[in-house]
């Protein structure tokens, strides 16, 4: 089985080219593939498949040729992955499946996303919906937060810088299952002085449902930016969000919510699918 490996600000993915949708992916196979000791290792899997060849996307085949079939590291599927969209787009460009620069649309489970390829890659994310107050529990402490929908669910908890450094995110934060019945990505964000050209600045750590603490979460950075803009009373603006793996820039206009940052393909190769399938039953 052919694969590529890529990352967006440290949020890493195994990329499986499958234009005709014939790979027999299962949750246990994906989890085994993402295992960092016995598989390739990743925060998730991106299957590169044509929209017309996948039942979740065929209705949008006339709008966008390619569908981002995204799987979390535990084998569950997710509606949206901001860094995944950008890495997927970089793969398409480098594989010659789209033009090396310019704009096109991708289908995701959260809808059609416009992407622009340049030195960095920008994705037009679903406009965040900030909708209710809730809480997260971590290290025995309760943190107030705000629920945000960016095509997938988030809980953004403001903290100070020392708390952000000390948080133990080796275990999932506790959340209200009535508010988040399908689970949630939890972001902890500390404010700081914005760099030149930005209106606001946040530093973020994130625990992603299905993957654990990751070095970056694109949709999570968007959720953090949406809450920051709302708390500042701004309807538009530029928010810079630093994550463990680098820097993301989020721009909200009257009609768009853009996520921009680096996306890199680092390897191509073959995976022994039979060896992975033998490992899969243990997941």
From TrEMBL:
One of its GO terms (molecular function) is diaminopimelate epimerase activity. It catalyses: (2S,6S)-2,6-diaminopimelate = meso-2,6-diaminopimelate. The record marks 154, 208 as: Could be important to modulate the pK values of the two catalytic cysteine residues. InterPro entries: DAP_epimerase_AS, DAP_epimerase_DapF. GO terms for biological process: lysine biosynthetic process via diaminopimelate. Pfam families: DAP_epimerase (PF01678). It comes from the Bacteria. Keywords: Amino-acid biosynthesis, Cytoplasm, Isomerase, Lysine biosynthesis. It is an enzyme of class 5 (isomerase). The active site is at residues 81, 217. One of its GO terms (cellular component) is cytosol. It is found in: Cytoplasm. Pathway: Amino-acid biosynthesis; L-lysine biosynthesis via DAP pathway; DL-2,6-diaminopimelate from LL-2,6-diaminopimelate: step 1/1. Substrate binds at residues 11, 72, 82-83, 152, 185, 208-209, 218-219. Its EC number is 5.1.1.7. Belongs to the diaminopimelate epimerase family. Catalyzes the stereoinversion of LL-2,6-diaminopimelate (L,L-DAP) to meso-diaminopimelate (meso-DAP), a precursor of L-lysine and an essential component of the bacterial peptidoglycan. Homodimer. PANTHER family: DIAMINOPIMELATE EPIMERASE, DIAMINOPIMELATE EPIMERASE, CHLOROPLASTIC. NCBIfam families: DapF (TIGR00652). This is Diaminopimelate epimerase. It comes from Dactylosporangium aurantiacum. The gene is dapF.
